[in-house]
Amino acid sequence: MPLPPQPTRRGATVADARPAPLRPAPAVAQPRVPLAIEDWLTVVIMALLALITFANVLVRYFTSASFAWTEEVSVFLMIVLAMVAGSAAVARNRHIRIEFFADGGTPRRQRALATFGAAMVALLFGLIAVLSVRLVWDDVQYGETSPGIGVPQWWYSIWLPIISAAITLRALGLMLRRGRAAGDDPKAPTSPEVRAEERAP
Question: Integer distance in angstroms from the first to the last C-alpha of the chain?
């Protein structure tokens, strides 16, 4: 037979003093195209940058010379790395923002701002993708070569419209998911779960 609730001060019971159970985290819509694509591309590019730089240091140390192509290729890889990481940030809704405005207010307002931001990102990179196609065409038509090692310039510039189009699609996917409020994502810096963890002793 269960024991009756024990009274506490001011007429409250032990049952009333128990902490409320944590609410389950709501399901967050995930992108259909796996984010592992950007993650693995980031790993590969970082590894290539490290290998190229290390090899160039060794050659310069032992021979007092360096590879002529390392600087040009490294700059290209760093630009690609920044754009690939930007694509992953768009898909995860993790781009820089002013949290006071983006994560404040009602959940409806947060989702509206996230949707508007995703639409603006899609518009920007859509324009970059379209306009950079003309740049690639000019490089091919006029036979432009790179200033460092003299390879065709379009070997580098062709990746600008490709990655810009990928970022546009990621932003459109985020917009179609209508963004998400800060309270809907248990991993967001301003979510109740993260704030409670920060206040824990």
Answer: 38
Tokens of 54: 């290390």
Q: Which helix (H) or strand (E) holds 188?
A: none
Residues of the chain with pLDDT under 50: 14-15, 22-27, 182-183, 189-190, 194, 198
* Dist CA 183 CA 4 (whole Å): 37
**Tokens at 3, concatenated:** 């024991």
Question: 152 forms bridges with which residues in the sheet?
Answer: 145
Side chain identity, residue 81: L
Token readout for 132 is 């950079």
Query: CB–CB of 93/175 below 8 Å?
Result: no
Ramachandran bin of 174, using left for φ above 0, alpha for ψ from -120 to 50, beta for the remaining angles: alpha
Residue 100: half-sphere exposure toward Cβ, Cα within 13 Å: 0
**Amino acid (1-letter code) at residue 162:** I
pLDDT digits (tens, 9 = 90+) for 108-162: 888 888 888 889 999 999 999 999 999 999 999 999 999 888 899 999 999 999 9
Amino acid identity of 165? A
- Nearest 10 degrees: CA dihedral of 91, 96, 99, 100? -130
Q: Three-class SS of residue 6?
A: coil
Residue for token pair 């024991």: 3
For 15, other C-beta atoms within 10 Å of its C-beta total 10
